[in-house]
Design brief:
The protein has 189 residues and is α+β, with helices and mostly antiparallel strands. The protein is built from six helices and four strands. Strands 1-2-4-3 form a four-stranded mixed β-sheet.
Length: 189
Amino acid sequence: RLPYADASFDLVVGHAVLDHIPDLDQAFAEIMRVLKPGGRFVFAGEPTRHGDWMARRLSRLTWLAATKVTRLPGLESWRRPQTELDESSRAAALEAVVDLHTFTPRNLEDLARRAGATQVRVTTSELLASWFGWPVRTFECAVPKERLGMRWAQFAYQGWLRLSTVDERLEWIVPRGLFYNAEVTGVRP
C-alpha cells in the first residue's frame, strides 16, 4: 500500500518501473486509489515482450563479439580488464533477475482497465533505434571508456536520433508490439 491518502494526486508518473513490480494488478489498484477523480497516470519506458527479446539477443551477440575480438593480437588496448568484464556480466545477470515482466500493448491496456481506468491508451516507440542502441550500449560496456571519445558519443547519439525519426514513420505500419518501449496512460473516472 502506498503511504498516501485516497485521491491525493492529479498525476502519477513512472519510467521503466512497472516491469519490476511483482503484483501489477495491486500496483494499478493503488495508482487508481491515490489519483483524484479525473487524475491521470503515465508510465513510459516499459519493455515490450518482442522488444526485450530482441534487445537481449543483440546485446548478447555484441558482448560475445566485442570480448572475443579484443583478445586478438593488436587489439589488447581495446579490452577491459577481466575483473571489469566479470562485473559487467554479473550486472547483466542481476538485470535479468529484477526485470520481472515484459508487456504486450494489449496486456498493459487490460491491466489499466481492470483497475478501472478510462481513456486508456498505449503507444510504443523505438524499433530500429533500439536495435542500434542496445548493441552500442553493450559495446560501451565491453571496451575501456578511454578508447571511446567524442566522435563515438556523436555517432551513438546521432545514430539513435536518426533511427528514432525513422521509427516515428514506422509506427504507422509496423505492429506496435514489435517496438521496444511501451507507454501507457489512463484516467481515474
